[in-house]
């Protein structure tokens, strides 16, 4: 048996003590020098994370002359970062033990080892230890900064991630895109576009991740003009960034910004090989959101004819299209829902049940919707119960079922203001004024406040967000209101002036003006 085979056998976790002694004897009598690091390191590199961590102590015990080097620690720390799950007490001890051994052998200052320690500590949730290693490191490269940055981002510490980003002496495209993606993931879309703008001003060519992140931010803000600008940047001569992922993000961005024609053009211009399930799903979602529900269903069938298998999100979009058709596609929705698992191998989740309840509810099939909810194999969530509650309000006003649903939502901790308002409206529609008063009283006792409405408009590259019932309006808004008022008065409209109406709406009676969210936020997007 060769020494390599003996080392391979060591990686098996089921070896008995007698077998280990036999392998030990074989290695001791082997003519190969025991201090050779190549075979042990190669074995650690090829083993799974858990097996590598279990193998290392055996190698140290059976091969006393084996001294780990920088490659050994790199493999082990990578395994320690990836070996999940592990009992919490052992997580810190594992990385600390490797850290201590690296210090004892003088390898802790090597850049591979220090980067591995930063990553391993961060992966185990020990950000303070990760930061100490980073601060004490003699040598740092881009990987050192990105490892710690990724750790802060993964822990939701966006402020620390931004501070670290600003400290970076040389911001690589990876660093820029990581910062941009972090803001997109946290919902800071205006900040993401500000980072993208800075990236371009620094003359750093954006990579695919930065392009996709910027387009996602434009989609969320409804910033159509900025999305077009990014599209022009990608499509400029000499750039080869228009791959399937970027094209799919463009389809999604244009659809969400209201330009379905542009989304269709991008989709149709994609080569057939790039039209994967994500591209089809984005286009189906766009058609559904714009009310072109039958076209969405046709595209769903087209993707299947082209051999593209739908995924879970595809089915949510298709069922949503059926719901928005207003009852005309109930049978189609039932067939799609029925064949999800049997034909396509996609097990319906709670989102699919919610979409199907919405289909039945909007079509007025309340009894079928209730029966579907009661037979769900999982606990319904707020979307499922909310769709059913909305169906109760739209069709028949079944207040008893509505009351039951609100109680169900309260048990789940999901009885927000919209739920109570819907129930109150249902009682009012049935002239049950005492129940209306009771619901409103419960809302006051629980301090349930209605979430204010919000809208956004893009003007000259600036996305302006408006929240209802705010007191901090910019002065120019009142000027516009006065101008509109004058125009209406010239047309002969004799009613309360718009400015007074607006003030009454905003300021109202003293008791109505207690909690007012901040209204207008102006976001400078890509210039």
Automatic annotation (TrEMBL):
Superkingdom per UniProt: Eukaryota
Protein name: Uncharacterized protein
